[in-house]
Design a protein that fits this description.
The chain is mainly beta and 378 residues long. It has one domain: Tachylectin-2, Chain A (5 Propeller). It contains three helices and 25 strands. A six-stranded antiparallel beta sheet has the order 6-7-11-10-9-8. Strands 1, 2, 23, 24 and 25 form a five-stranded antiparallel beta sheet that branches. The N terminus is likely disordered.
């Protein structure tokens, strides 16, 4: 079945600061109305997501890039990402006025203010506006915004969630303390946040072994200074017996009706293993404005959370892609939604793109490179 028809049915350093991922009210979302019934209704009635008609876009948004996080400031789109160039490291961003064609990537500006290092995060979707200013005074005096991120203490994961604070929503400095501690001692990874009901909610990869999945924490008050556990399995994954079951890489986005859309990725085809395996599908969830504690399936069909789009849809559209990961989303000026994914491409299939400087080193087979692709709702 064609992909469009199928969908109709239905890190405590500034490196980690720049890799934080959420869209959560730090910038004002575009005006307009969201289509589709509110989540949480009878599971026998399909809940059709406004993203259910996603169709892959032609071309590549950025080459030698991964872990996309899209944001907006005024009429400019900011695509934050990890550089995959062998000659560079860390987070960068590229800008666009149409959310399709992006300029050359740049590193975020860092400013030294009275001996404190601040990163300028214009357009970053990771900025969380706090319901109430914090009473903390260092390194920020009564911060009004935070970027939540794992502390990176355990082989690319963290044992806790720390934050970077700001008093203007633009310049952020590391607070250097953990606000959440993993109850199982590690594996805290991708972090996203949203604010509902006067509290900050954090969704993060957490837990060990069969419990490694998305966990949900909520602040004890509006300052976002301290948190309690809401659920160690908010998406109902259950104890894992295989990575293809687990939902990963949450990204929260503020919708016009006051709810938050949460995108996740699942490696439904198994681990990345080109050319033998193509893997990765994108799912949607919703935290309603009335109940931020509950994150429910968005694109429900017969009670099942159907994927919005998967790697095979990109292949059917002409892309030679073997994995799609790390989704993020933005609403365009015309009311459509565009989702960005990190994608593992076969470099030889993209002769017009310069992928020679970023051939993936951690893939068994040579000749594959990370890039960013997109898909747009119709």
């Amino acid at each position: 079945m064609p992909y469009n028809q199928k969908r109709t049915l239905l890190s405590v350093s500034l490196v980690f600061l720049l890799s934080a991922c959420s869209d959560n009210g730090g910038t004002t979302p575009p005006t307009g109305s969201d289509s589709g019934p509110a989540p949480g209704s009878d599971a026998s009635t399909p809940i059709v997501s406004p993203l259910s008609t996603l169709t892959p876009d032609d071309g590549v948004r950025l080459t030698c890039a991964a872990i996309p996080r899209i944001g907006q400031e005024g009429g400019t789109y900011y695509l934050y990402h990890n550089t995959e160039l062998a000659s560079e490291t860390g987070r960068q961003y590229a800008t666009s006025t149409d959310a399709l064609s992006f300029g050359s990537p740049k590193k975020s500006v860092q400013e030294n203010v009275n001996g404190k290092l601040f990163a300028v995060l214009t357009g970053s979707p990771g900025r969380q506006k706090l319901p109430s200013p914090s009473a903390r005074t260092t390194p920020c005096m009564n911060p009004t915004h935070r970027v939540y991120t794992h502390n990176g203490a355990l082989q690319g994961f963290g044992t806790g969630i720390t934050a970077n604070c700001s008093t203007d929503g633009e310049r952020f400095a590391s607070e250097g303390v953990d606000l959440i501690t993993s109850e199982e001692g590690g594996q805290m990874g991708v972090v996203t946040s949203y604010a509902l009901g006067g509290r900050v909610h954090v969704l993060t990869m957490d837990g060990m072994n069969d419990h490694h999945r998305i966990w949900h924490y909520k602040s004890t008050d509006g300052t976002g200074d301290s948190f309690t556990l809401v659920s160690n399995d908010p998406l109902g994954n259950g104890d894992m017996k295989g990575g293809n079951i687990r939902h990963n890489d949450p990204f929260a986005y503020a919708m016009d009706d006051g709810s938050f859309l949460v995108l996740t990725m699942r490696m439904h085809g198994g681990n990345i293993n080109p050319p033998n395996t193509r893997t990765g599908e994108i799912h949607a969830w919703r935290a309603s404005a009335a109940n931020g504690d509950s994150v429910v399936g968005e694109n429900l069909v017969a009670g099942e959370n159907e994927a919005l789009i998967d790697v095979d849809d990109f292949v059917a559209a002409g892309h030679d892609v073997y994995s799609v990961n790390d989704p993020s989303v933005i609403k365009l000026a015309d009311g459509r939604y565009r989702v960005y994914v990190g994608a593992l491409l076969k470099a030889a299939s993209y002769p017009s793109e310069d992928l020679s400087g970023c051939i993936a080193k951690n893939i068994k087979e040579d000749g594959y490179a990370w890039a960013i692709l997109s898909a747009t709702s119709q």
